[in-house]
Amino acid sequence: AMRKDTDRLQSITKRFSRIGSQPSKNKADVNQIIDEAVEYFQKRLPRHSVKVNIMVNRGEIPEVTVNQELLQWVLENLIRNSLDAMDKPVGVIEIKSRYEQKKNCVVIEYYDNGKGIIRGNQKKIFRPGMTTKKHGWGMGLALVKRIIEEYHQGQIRLVRSNPKGTQFNVLLPVERS
User: Fold this and answer.
1) CA-CA distances (angstroms) from residue 158 to 106, 114, 119?
2) At what angle do helices 68-85 and 30-42 cross, to 10 degrees?
3) In terms of pLDDT, which residue wins out, 78 or 84?
4) I need a surface site. Which of 4, 38, 61, 126 has the fewest CB within 10 A?
5) Dist CA 69 CA 152 (whole Å)
């Protein structure tokens, strides 16, 4: 466990060093990156104040060219935000992957059943400094957007958010062979 935590701290250090520079990218299995992000949180969920189930529905998807550490950071940020927004007796986070042939991209559909983002904040959530939390700087979703759009030439969209929960879609382009 200590070795994994040490590796984790080294990974976080690498992530911050890549901000502002062009990170290296390699072909990778997005399902594996999702699994690694979920595994990290699964071990910590018993200490969370609300019972939360994280479910993963892995579609058959092609590899995409990504920076694995940064993409994992994107998923971890979304999960962390969901955990902070949980107000139900049982929290649910669901992550689905699928291939969208028309757009030639891998889609990560991310759902939670948290309290949602109020309508007035929905257009502002990706702006640096935007936060509704008592803690934090409001940089998480701004960095997520930058990682997906600038580093990976993908898209992240808030699909819906209401008191029943929130859905984000992340689209990552697949290189033509």
Assistant:
1) 16, 14, 12
2) 40
3) 78
4) 4
5) 12
Residue whose structure tokens are 């949602």 = 116
Buried b (16+ CB within 10 A) or exposed e, 2-20: eeeeeeeeeeeeebeebee
Name the DSSP class of 45. Answer: G
Average pLDDT for 54-81: 94
Q: What is the pLDDT of residues 99-130, one digit of tens each?
A: 999 999 999 999 999 999 989 888 888 887 66
* pTM (2 d.p.): 0.84
Residue 22: which of 70, 78, 75, 76 has the closest Cα?
70
- β-strand pairing of 105-112 with 26-28: unpaired
Does the pLDDT at position 15 exceed 70? no
Q: The tokens of 24 are what? A: 């290296």
Q: Using one digit for the tens of pLDDT, what is the confidence trace for 18-27?
A: 555 677 899 9
